[in-house]
Amino acid sequence: MDTLDIEQYEREGWAVVEGVFSGEECEELVAHMLDLHAGKKSLEGFAPREADQLQRTHNQHWYDPVARDWLIAPPLKEPLTQCLDDEPDGIQTMYFWVGSEQGRHQDQYYLPGCMSAWIALMDVDEDNGAMLVQSGSHKGRLLTGSDFSEGGEFHEWDYNAAVDELCTRNAIPETPVCVQRGDVVFFDGVLVHRGGPIGTPGSYRHSLANHYIGHSFDQWTHSSWPRVSFDGSQRLTS
Ligand SMILES: O=C(O)CCC(=O)C(=O)O
Ligand SMILES: [Fe+2]
Fold it and tell me: What letter would DSSP give residue 112?
């Protein structure tokens, strides 16, 4: 496994660590998710889907020990600790079978204080929907709820359209994050990013997006979401 380039992370707001997970480990998770999707495995909490419905799972680690183990996989701990300058608490997971094509956003709008470890479970490029990131945008403005309330600059704007506007004002080109199976993209929760277009419709893009906050972060707003430490213990912020 490669090591995190913390200077790049701080400068660009993101950095890739190559080869964090083996091909075998990735294939195992992909097989687990394909089996769940196909109904070959059942799991309480996982809603069966139609064959053509590949919508992501959200917080699968709440009901699936496999997802929980991936959230606190030991090789993620050191790079996360460096980025957060604190011990990491896992707080959210999203599993994608296909590219999300999600509009531009900043994760901290939804998850205060967070950062991300985005795990490629297969090779990812512009064909199957690479993420697009705006390097350096994490040093700029974070749009928050108050920007959208009465008197806020973006009152009555659509959220993604407001981030599009922020992106234009930042005037920094977007970079497709093309990575290989087993690589992990660490990125700052203020970074402007989106799920890029899927160049080859119908292609798979298995990936797991994990989100973390620092153990001492005390502004966490999702009070019913457990904070999962790397030793497996869980707690709620009151
Ligand atoms: O995987 C994607 O396309 C988007 C993921 C994302 O927005 C995130 O992990 O925060
Ligand atoms: Fe995101």
Answer: T
Phi, psi angles (nearest 5°) of residue 183:
-80, 155
Domains of the chain: 6-210 (2.60.120.620)
pLDDT in tens, 135-184: 999 999 999 999 999 999 999 999 999 999 999 999 999 999 999 999 99
CA of 222 to the centre of ligand 2 (A): 17
CA-proximal residue: ligand 1, atom 10 (nearest): 107
Q: Indicate yes or no: pTM above 0.85.
A: yes
Alpha-carbon 178 to chain mean position: 15
Q: Which ligand is nearest to the CA of 207?
A: 1
Cα 116 to ligand 2 centroid, rounded to whole Å: 8
**Atom of ligand 1 at shortest range from CA of 96:** 1
Question: Residue whose CA is closest, atom 4 of ligand 1?
Answer: 195
Ranges of beta strands (E only) in the chain are 14-17, 57-58, 88-96, 115-120, 131-133, 175-177, 184-188, 193-195, 207-214, 227-228, 234-235
Q: Is the CB of residue 102 below 6 angstroms from any atom belonging to ligand 1?
A: yes
